[in-house]
Specification:
By secondary structure, the protein is mostly helical. Helix content is 86%, strand content 0%. Mean pLDDT is 83; it is low at 1-10 and 15-52. Keywords: Signal.
Length: 216
Amino acid sequence: MRFVAYYFHYSRSTKTIHMRKILLPLAFACLAAVACNNQASRNAQDTLSGEDTGMTKDMAQDVNKETFENDSVRGATNNISKAAEDGLYEVKLLSDGQAKTTNAAIKKMAAHMLKAHEKLNKELAELTAKKGITIPTVLEDSKIRDIQQITDKTGTDFDKAFVDELVDKHEKAINLFENTANDATDPDIKQLFTKAIPELKEHLTMAKKEQEKLKK
């Protein structure tokens, strides 16, 4: 009887150990799967909430360098990615400036320019997607800091800094768009950049007008 009892106890213990050997790895596997799912969920939420790192100008140019072998095409894509970055900068600057200024004329001007630049950014994004050209989707931290230095100002000091920046950026944008339009071999790219120049010049005239007012 002692033997039978011992055998029964031993068999139960052996089965328990065996079951633990099976169940423990399964438990760890389940925990790992849950952790992976949670991480994937967090990654998706980060992307949807705009916390994803995105594509900066330098990153976009590196991608285009690998995509396009021809040096002249690479040069064109560099100009295009620079124009896209400038567009992102203009939209943020104008959006922040419109919200910050208390000057009615400057607020109206900023709203007008903002609408135009958002439209241009959309057209450029759609065209480059068709052409397989990668463009930036976010600003580099240094660019955001540049805007922050302007928006940290108040009153007339802000208005002057804001309008001065608009003048400077539009002068550079016109030069970039003219060069890109002249050098472009793709007719669609040439058309888009050529079409945008008159409106950029109009914006420059508007900004210079407000700049002169602030000097008085």
